[in-house]
Model the fold of this input.
Amino acid sequence: MRTVFPVPLPDIMAELTRAGRWEGELVHARRDGTTVVVASRWSLRRAAPGRPPAILETNNDITERKRAEDALHEARTELAHVARVTTLGELAASIAHEINQPLAAIVADANACLNWLGADRPPLDQVREALAAVVLLHYEAGRPRHGLVDQPLHHRGARGPHLGDREPCATFHVALPGVG
Done:
């Protein structure tokens, strides 16, 4: 059998001589090439004068335990990776929602304006109001946020169907070319 020591053998022998004992894990390679991991404990037995000292060595096979520990470590690593990927997916979905929400309102208001402007007598006050909401939503979509969900820049009041019961905090004057 060939043995792989965790540190050079002279260092182990020095520790054994100094402390009278040594403990560590060894890897033994069998003739067929398979390996066995053992928990090894060495104890120095001092001999009477004129007799050589003896080393008592005990080895416990821990190969299966080491394989199980390695498998557990690999499973935990994979689980941590899956958790990170899942979190990134959730974050991406949340960001996409935060981006799409004001865009959907902008498109809805713009479509309403196009429909109103196609009428014989377009309701210009409603068109201006809807276009002001588009400008406001554009501003809100582009401003820095301190969290994924931020309070919209509206306050309560009755302003029309496109804003519900909210109105913009700022007033915008939109000039439409060719519309008086």
